[in-house]
């Protein structure tokens, strides 16, 4: 049975994970080193290794936290709710994740660009199962004529692409928009207009 961490141990673990998130999101798994993580955390490398025995262990801990956060917005889509309300709430939740957790989004993007070697089992398991479940809900709403008929999985893909872009390409977004713009407020207004028009049921 694993002993619970003391308050100091829990704090140091959090400091290490926060530092690792900075390093991994900037350099990817291959480019990151334990020395870099220890330096950002303000700890010695031996101290870091007391908490995490390897770079892989730190990365796995981060990915585990990330997947919980990443899947929660889609889990929250209520099949008994009003379709347009539920879809737009999902879009807003994903955009808020990009605004509030940009490093996590870039960590996920880096993992995908490398072929998901440390997440393949999860994306082929839990993630696919959840997407299939929610795609079936979207398909039912389409069959009922409550939203426009579109390929439901590709609708989910488009929501991911249009919201995570603002985290993964933050520098580009802000450079193109220029000073004085709030990209997330403007994106929220634009995406609501876009998806409302796209998903409006066609008259019979």
In short:
This protein has 204 residues and is mainly alpha-helical.
Task: Note down, in words, how this protein is organized.
With 204 residues, the protein is mainly α. The protein has 2 domains: 1-53, Homeodomain-like (Arc Repressor Mutant, subunit A), CATH 1.10.10; 62-199, Tetracycline Repressor, domain 2, CATH 1.10.357.10. Helices cover 77% and strands 0% of the residues. α4 (55-75) packs antiparallel against α5. The protein starts with 6 loop residues before the first helix and ends in a 5-residue tail after the last helix.
Descriptive key words:
Arc Repressor Mutant, subunit A, 204 residues, 10 helices, Tetracycline Repressor, domain 2, 77% helix, mainly alpha, elongated, 2 domains
């Amino acid at each position: 049975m694993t002993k619970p961490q003391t308050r100091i141990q829990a704090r140091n673990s959090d400091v290490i994970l926060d530092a690792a998130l900075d390093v991994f999101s900037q350099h990817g798994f291959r480019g990151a080193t334990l020395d870099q993580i220890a330096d950002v955390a303000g700890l010695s490398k031996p101290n870091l290794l007391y908490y995490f025995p390897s770079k892989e262990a730190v990365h796995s801990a981060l990915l585990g936290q990330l997947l919980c956060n990443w899947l929660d917005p889609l889990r929250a889509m209520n099949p008994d709710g009003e379709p347009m309300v539920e879809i737009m709430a999902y879009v807003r939740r994903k955009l808020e994740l990009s605004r509030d957790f940009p490093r996590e989004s870039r960590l996920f993007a880096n993992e995908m660009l490398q072929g998901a070697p440390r997440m393949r089992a999860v994306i082929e398991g839990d993630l696919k199962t959840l997407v299939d479940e929610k795609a079936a809900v979207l398909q039912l709403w389409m069959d009922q004529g409550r939203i426009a008929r579109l390929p439901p999985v590709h609708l989910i893909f488009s929501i991911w692409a249009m919201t995570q872009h603002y985290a993964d390409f933050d520098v580009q977004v802000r450079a193109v928009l220029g000073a004085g713009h709030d990209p997330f407020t403007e994106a929220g207004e634009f995406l609501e207009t876009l998806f409302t028009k796209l998903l409006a049921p066609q008259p019979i």
